[in-house]
Structures are given as structure tokens and as C-alpha cells.
Amino acid sequence: MVSDPRFYQLHAPVILGELVGAVNAKLAHGSPDHQLEGVAALGSATRADITFARSSKVLKEISQLDAGLCFCSPDMVEPLKSLGVLAIAVCDCPVAAFNMAASLLVQPRQNNFHDEAISSDAILAEGVLIGPGACIGDGVQVGKNTIIGPGAVIGTGCIIGHHCHIGANAVIGFSIIGDRVDIRPGAVLGEAGLGIVMSEQGMLEVTHFGHVRIADDVRVGSITTIDRAVFGETFIGERTKIDNQVQVAHNVTIGSDCVLAAFAGVSGSTTLGKGIMMGGRATIIDHIRIGDEVRIGAGALVTKDIGAGEIWSGYPARPLRQFLREQVSLEKLAAAKGNKQNGK
Amino acid sequence: MVSDPRFYQLHAPVILGELVGAVNAKLAHGSPDHQLEGVAALGSATRADITFARSSKVLKEISQLDAGLCFCSPDMVEPLKSLGVLAIAVCDCPVAAFNMAASLLVQPRQNNFHDEAISSDAILAEGVLIGPGACIGDGVQVGKNTIIGPGAVIGTGCIIGHHCHIGANAVIGFSIIGDRVDIRPGAVLGEAGLGIVMSEQGMLEVTHFGHVRIADDVRVGSITTIDRAVFGETFIGERTKIDNQVQVAHNVTIGSDCVLAAFAGVSGSTTLGKGIMMGGRATIIDHIRIGDEVRIGAGALVTKDIGAGEIWSGYPARPLRQFLREQVSLEKLAAAKGNKQNGK
Amino acid sequence: MVSDPRFYQLHAPVILGELVGAVNAKLAHGSPDHQLEGVAALGSATRADITFARSSKVLKEISQLDAGLCFCSPDMVEPLKSLGVLAIAVCDCPVAAFNMAASLLVQPRQNNFHDEAISSDAILAEGVLIGPGACIGDGVQVGKNTIIGPGAVIGTGCIIGHHCHIGANAVIGFSIIGDRVDIRPGAVLGEAGLGIVMSEQGMLEVTHFGHVRIADDVRVGSITTIDRAVFGETFIGERTKIDNQVQVAHNVTIGSDCVLAAFAGVSGSTTLGKGIMMGGRATIIDHIRIGDEVRIGAGALVTKDIGAGEIWSGYPARPLRQFLREQVSLEKLAAAKGNKQNGK
Fold first, then answer.
1. In which element (H, E) is residue C99 found?
2. Cα–Cα nearest to C243, from C170, C181, C183
3. For residue C27, what is the enclosing H or E element?
4. Binning pLDDT at 50, 70 and 90, where does residue B341 land?
5. One domain for residues A100 and A139
6. What is the pLDDT of residue A344?
7. Which helix (DSSP H) or strand (DSSP E) does residue C320 occupy?
């Protein structure tokens, strides 16, 4: 997967043997002459991508892998070979080696700090208004009649559509934003999320190579955070309305016409369908799938996939009826005990 | 209800017939010559206000309505007429028609982006200190010895009392703030809240015509959000102390001498009395009334009105004693089952 | 305890008799000629410190107190004398008297608002990059190759190590920050926390005399808040990774190699050991001790100390196994009741 060149400097192609040598790994399978271009997760890597395998657990239920180069520990060479991985490099800490090799292929563009806060390289359409103290990076494109509030910071390469409103002191980077999008003050979009991999060298943070994409007519509340993807994109669908102080983690996909109330939280790689309502402070853990038109109660903690049209609530969340029935049962149980203790 | 002219441009009076025609509605009752001045919720609209009725459900328990003009669907004409509404306009989507008509009566004042960050039109009393990069809009008034931190943004028309402290990068709009108020960095006050009305045209956002009022000696923590009212005001009473990362939604009223710990959330149109303590992450859903001196436990989710002086906790919240009794009952039940399974 | 002179102006020494007189207290024990230098909590005050005693409850389990001067109500004179307090001043509202007396010893340095946003007094090492609109206070020191984003505000006296990254619009004050620290946009560090003491004069806010210290290689997510200590320091240990929208209250100590997921909250004076994982939205109330390598589930509310290596979850939190067993018991109970009601 080739990272978006608006946000990343790409050094492709790089020769496989050079990559492996530069990170002190050992080529256990494949040709050192192969050329590599991008980075990807193990399951979606193509022959032009480097990737890594954390443990043999991740290979369950996989029948084929097309990665161009995979970093792994010695015990994983044979299973990966049999799944079709083109080249395999062995090392003590696959994540660390991958991160280092990836930085030779792809690097985030730094925001250049010019003397002028608005880069002369930015393309601002007719009718764009920019508040005092706003900062616009190199290569930014802003569509007509968009208003960028005072103190807002738009990072290198961002695309913002027409008739958008970017609130004061919002900070936006690594983002492609549609038309008529309303982003409120203090929102932060496009930062790398927090992904931790345990390695022999201790905790390693997962490097991010992706971006954020916001479809048309989306609303993002004040002081909401939307992290960019590790690979690919974090996506918010058309007309979805997000309230204040919401957190959307890396690689989340949210469909169109959803409503996320204040303090809602969606953890990494979770996917929401269309027309979903999340109550205030509702939380969904990582790698969950939520079907269309689902309603999640205020304060619920969702730890399982939910099918289309269902209503869930509770901690942890369960179907609403079950939750209510359990509440009543518990209430009666406690009342009965109370009666006994009172000698009735 | 006439919106505050500090924050809104008022085009009143507007002739009823022109309003109805401009939004392609059909006058079903009343005189086209009546003059209108403001906007209001159905229940509080006067003869000078336009309003809308979402559904016949909202008419239950209402014996009289004084609105000057009400937008509604065809089936509601007769019930509204019998409640005394002066004029009625029929249309497919009453909310959309109301929003459009309202914009002909009332429009939020835009922040003008001058070359200078501090408007020459702002009135700054003696001893006011303004940090580098702060942005002060037209018509702003700031009382003596108030300090406005670096990067703070004060929107058009805001009133800030004396001896206040506005933190760095705070964003304040549509707000009237008392004396000795302490607002911490990154707080966002006065944005339109998230109100959604389902219509035949899909989700519609509720337009906001109100403001925020903060009484004397209030403290607002870092990165806290307080949304302005749809109509009228969101209000925080004297001496109330609000911690970091709290959310106060539109049309909330909070009495004096309350304490809201970090992450507390108060949903739309909820009313809190005096001397209330909300623990960390306590949440109250919308349209709830909380009596004086109530204490709400950390993490509780309040879904019902609570009478004065009570202590509630739990998810959903219930009286503390009941919550504790239920916890003990559940613990014993599980322990008993565990013993059985262990053959005891 | 002498407050850090980087952040506070110290007027020490001050003669005891002058302090007591200035706040209209009455010296009930000790010599008016003693010299005082700092402020501290009752339990950690030395002979050079002033302090206060709220109520006789706080004296339980204390066998000796070394304070130089303690403000208290008349009934506490004898118990404090017998514990060894050097001098005792009696007054109606000990907290108010202490706050006033403390301000004669120690005062926070105000940020001076120069015409230039970057103080000429700041010491910036080689390779430091500062974004447009950033504001750097007097006496700030920044290590080599550190990047400070656009609009970031670094308050008077802060120390920032080398190779750090401070995100756009972050606000940092009263903080000592190590090397390779990564602070994301909109984070707010070093504000006074919310501490309330009830007095006869109503609620009084606790004045803060401490600072924040962040060790090397820490990551602080976007829009996270870390409050400074009342006395001493709020501390984040090496390599600890904090996600977005986390709240760390005053006087918290967090050990090395911890992970705090989004919305995690740690209340005042709570201490976390090393290698702790807090799930998303996990909350710990105040004055709790969490042992090394503890894991706390998403959304849990911790109200008790937890020993090293344990796994807890739930509301309120309990050992994970117990929590799961209770969930199963409740589910079965409700299902059984449901069957009965259905005539089965």
C-alpha cells in the first residue's frame, strides 16, 4: 500500500537486500534484488509492500499472504513461506526492524515553519477567509468560501473542500476533508494514534503511514480527536454528526448518517455501518463490527459485534431487553434480601 | 424571544406573509400581515415569535400556545388552532422550513477577520492584559484587570467581567461572563450544540439562537465545553466549580455552588439546582431535573429526576443505598453459585 | 517544602509573628520570632513550613508532626501541640488563613506578556524549531532539536529536554519535561487542579504550590490534561504512554512503562506503580495505590487499592474473575425469572 504522497515522502523503489541489510536482519527466504515500494499490514500487503508478523497467532485462518517482504522471528519462517510470502527477513524484534525499514521507504512530511504562517505554496480558492494567527502548511488546498478560524493549524498537504468551517484553534494534519464539513474549535484530526506492541526491547509504538478522510457534510464537535490510520485511512462517512469531546481511534471506519453523542469513543480498527446512534459516553472496544442502524445506549461499553438494527446498552453492553431484565432481577433480588434481613 | 443583538443580527420586524412565502410553505390559518420579531421553542413562543411543531406528541399536556406563527405538517393544523396559535403554516418538513424562515429574522454575527487580531471596536477596561496571538472580536467588552491568555479567541459581542482570567487558547463566543470568572486553557464556550431532528429530508441539525451566561466567581476547567442554547441561554450559577474535560450541553442550567468533577457530562436541557456535587465522569441525560444538594457518584449515569438532598450512584444511577445493596446481593449470588460449582 | 523558584517567587524567610498577624489569626503556641520559608501538607511539613489542619480526623494514625506553623480551629490546639508542632495559630477558617499566609511566602510567577511572543530571556538550544504563533515565556529552557508546534504556549520557567515534540496549540506551564517527550496538540499541562475545601465561608479552592514533572520518552496524547501538584509534583514516569483525552489530576504519581488508553482518568493523589495498563475510559478515584503490572479493564471505576499483578474490571471495579462470575450469575438469574414469567 503506497502512502499518500501529499502527506509522506516516498523513497520507492528500494532494493530488498538494502532494506534487510540496513536494519541488520537476515534474509531467510526470497531474492535480495526484489524492489519494494510501500508498507502494509500483514493481511493486506501486496508484492510491493513490506510488512511484519508479530506471532504465529495472527496466521490462523489465513490461507494466503502476498507480502513482498515480511519481518519475523526465526520460528515463523516456515509457516510464512508456505503461505506464499515472497521474501522473509529474520530478526530479534520484527516490529522494530519493520519500523526502521519502513522509514527508509516512507517518511511523514514535516511541517515547515516559514516566517509566514500561511505557506505561499498553499492553494486557497476564491472566498476563503482565514482568521488571525491561523497557520497553513505547504501544499494545502482549500476550497471556495471555506472559513478557517483564528489560530487553526492546517498541516502540510491537507485538502479541505468548499464551504467548510474550521473552528478556532483546531489542529488538522494528514487529512482529506470533503465539502460543507463543519469542524469545531479545538478539534484535533490526523495525529498518529496510540498503538503499542510489546517486544523484547519493551513497548514499541506503532508507526503510522495512513491518513484521515472526512466525507461531505460531516460535523466534528469541539475538542474531538480523530487519529489517522496506521495503514490506509480512518474514515468518517457522509452527513455523520459527531458531538464534542469524542475520540475516534486509528483505522476506524464510520458509515454515513451516524450520530455520536458527547464523549463517545470508538477504539482502533472498529467499523460502524450506516445510521448508527451512539449515546453519550458510549464506548466500543477495538476490532468490533457494528451493523447498520444500531443504537447504543449512553455509557454502554460494547465488547462484541452487533448485528444491524439492534439496540444495546449496559456495562458490558448486551441487548437492551436483556439489560433491562437483568436490572429488574437484581433489584428484586436485593429487595428480597433486604426483607429477609428485616425479619419479614 | 428576541435573540441577544450582541451576538445576532436581527431583521425584525418581518411580515408573516413574506416569511411563509419565502420558504414555500402554505398559510393554513391566520393573517399574512402580522409582524414577527423572534424565534422560540413551541412552549415559550409569544405572539411575536415563529416556532415549529415536530409531532402531535409534543402537544400532550399543553392547554394553550401563544406562538405568532407555527410551522407544522398538515395533520397538526387543527390541534394547533384549538390551542390558540395565531398563525399556522403547513409544509413537508417543519424543521427545515423553520430553520430557513428563522434565518430571515435572526442571523449569528460572523467574526470579522481584520488584519489586526484585536478589533479596534472592542472595549478593554483599565488593566486588561492580552497575551500574544489572542484574538478579540468586534463589540467585545472586557472588564478591568482581566487577563486574556495567549492564543485565546473571544468572539464578536462577548462580555467578560472584571478580574477574570481566560486561559491560553480558550475559544469563547456567544457568551456573557461575570466577574472573577476563571476559564482555563483550551476551554470552548458558546458553540452551537448538537441537536438532531429526523425529517423526511434525513437528519437536520437544530439551529441555535441563544447564548451562554456564566455568573460571578465560576471556574471552568481546561478543555471543558459549554454549548450555547438553542433559544435563550445555557447558564452556570455563581461560584460553581467545573473541572477539566467536562461537557455542558445546550440549554443546561446549573445552579450556584455546584462542583462538577473531571469528565462530568450534562446533556441538553437538563437543570441542576444549587450545591450539587457530580463525581468524576458522572453523566446526566437530557431533560432531567436534579434537586438542590444532590450528590452523584463517580461514573454514574443519571436517567431520572433526583429530589433534593439525595445521593445516587450506579449505571443506571439509583439511590446509593439501593446501589450498594444490589452490589452485595450480586456478590453473594455469584459466590453461592461458585461454591455449588466447586461441589461445596 | 520550598516551591520550585522557576515557577514561584519566594519571599522567604518571613517572620512567624508577621504572618500570623497579617491574616488576623491568633498565636496559640510557639514563638513569634521563628522564620518560615515554605508551604507543605500537614504530614510532610518541616520546621520551615507553614501548613493547616482541616479537622481532627486527619490526626488519626499520626504520631509526630514537625510543622513550623499550623493554622487550625481552637479545638485542635492541644492535639497538635502534643504531636510536636512548633507553632499553632488559631482562626475561624484555617484553609482561608493558610491560603492568605501562603501567598505572603510563595507566589506563582505570572507570564509576562511582551510584545514579542518568544521571550528574549528564553534559552533555546541548537536545532530548536518553533512554529508560527508559539509563545515562549521568560526563563524557559528548551533542549536541542526540540520542535514546538504552531500556537503552543510554554509558560514562565518551564524546562523542556532535547528531541521533544510539543504539538500545535498545546499549553504547558509549571512543568519540567525530560528528553524525547512527545506531547500532542491541545494537551494542557501544569494548570492548578480542582481541589475544594468546605469552610464556613463556603467552598474554597485549594491553592497550588507545586509543578509537573515528565520523565524521558513519555508520550502525552492530544487534548490530555495533567494538573500540577498542590505541594511537590505530579509525576509521569519514563516511557509511559498516554492516549488522547486523558485526565491526570494533581499530585498523581504514575510509574514507568504504563499505558493509559483514551479517556482514562486518574484522580488526585493516586499512585500507580510500573507497567500498568489502564483500558479506555478506566477511572481511578483519589488517594488510591495501584501495584506494578496491574491491568484495569475499559470503563472500570477503581475505588480500592489493587495489589501488584492483578486484573480488575467493573463498576465499581473488582477482580476480573469475580466480575465475570457476577455477570454470568446475573444473566442466569434474569433468564430463570424470564422462564418463570413465560410459564416454563
1. helix C94-105
2. C183
3. strand C26-29
4. low
5. no
6. 45
7. helix C320-341
pLDDT at residue C339 tops 80: no
pLDDT tens for each residue of C70-109: 999 999 999 999 999 999 999 989 999 999 999 999 999 9
Q: Does residue C326 lie in a domain region?
A: no
> How far are the Cα atoms of A123, B232, C119 from residue A112, in angstroms, in the given order?
16, 45, 22
User: A218: which DSSP letter?
Assistant: -
The whole-number average pLDDT for the span B315-325 is: 96
On whether any CB of chain B is under 8 Å from the CB of A275, the answer is no
pLDDT tens by residue, A104-114: 999 999 887 77
Query: What is the C-alpha separation between C333 and B172, in angstroms, rounded?
Result: 51
Judging contacts by C-beta atoms under 8 Å, the chain A residues touching residue B202 are 239, 257
| Residues forming a β-bridge with B130 | B148
Count of domains observed in chain C = 2
Give the domain extent around B297.
123-320
CA distance A169 to B185: 11
B115 located within any domain? no
Is residue B12 less than 8 Å (CB to CB) from chain A?
no
CATH number at residue C45: 3.40.1390.10
Q: In the numeric block, which cell numbers belong to residue A20?
A: 534487510
Q: What is the pLDDT of residue B62?
A: 86
Partner-chain contact A194 C244, CB within 8 Å:
yes
Residues A88 and A162 grouped into a single domain: no
Q: Testing the interface with C: which of A166, A171, A281, A321 to mutate, by most C Cβ within 10 A?
A: A171
Q: Are residues C135 and C277 in the same domain?
A: yes
- Picking from C84, C108, C132, the residue at the C-terminal end of a domain is C108
Chain A environment of C238 (Cβ under 8 Å): none
* Predicted local confidence at residue B339, as pLDDT: 60
Residues A119-164 pLDDT 10s = 999 999 999 999 999 999 999 999 999 999 999 999 999 999 999 9
Query: Is there a single domain that holds both residue B169 and residue B247?
Result: yes
pLDDT of residue C135: 96
Residues of A in contact with B330 (CB under 8 A): 330, 333
pLDDT of amino acid C240: 98
Does the annotation mark C250 as catalytic?
A: yes
Q: What is the CATH number of the domain that holds B265?
A: 2.160.10.10
In a domain, B340, yes or no: no
Q: Which amino acid type is present at position B41? A: A
Q: Is residue C128 located within the same domain as residue C103?
A: no
Q: What confidence score (pLDDT) does residue A58 get?
A: 81
Do B64 and B184 belong together in one domain?
Answer: no
- For chain B, the chains sharing at least 3 beta-carbon pairs closer than 8 angstroms are A, C
CB contact, 8 Å: B165 with chain C? Answer: no
User: Using the beta-carbon criterion (under 8 Å), do B111 and A131 form an inter-chain contact?
Assistant: yes
One domain, residues B57 and B152? no
Selection from B185, B162, B159 nearest residue B173 by Cα: B159
pTM (2 decimals)?
0.96
Which of the residues C148, C223, C227, C247 would you substitute to probe the B interface, choosing the one with the greatest number of B C-beta atoms within 10 Å?
C247
- From CA C189, how far away is CA C154, in angstroms rounded? 10
Indicate if A248 and A303 belong to the same structural domain: yes
Evaluate whether residue B95 is within a structural domain: yes
User: In this complex, is the C-beta atom of A21 within 8 Å of any C-beta atom belonging to chain B?
Assistant: no
Once rounded to an integer, what is the mean pLDDT over residues A9-28?
A: 95
Centre a 10 Å sphere on the Cβ of residue B26 and count the other Cβ atoms it contains: 11
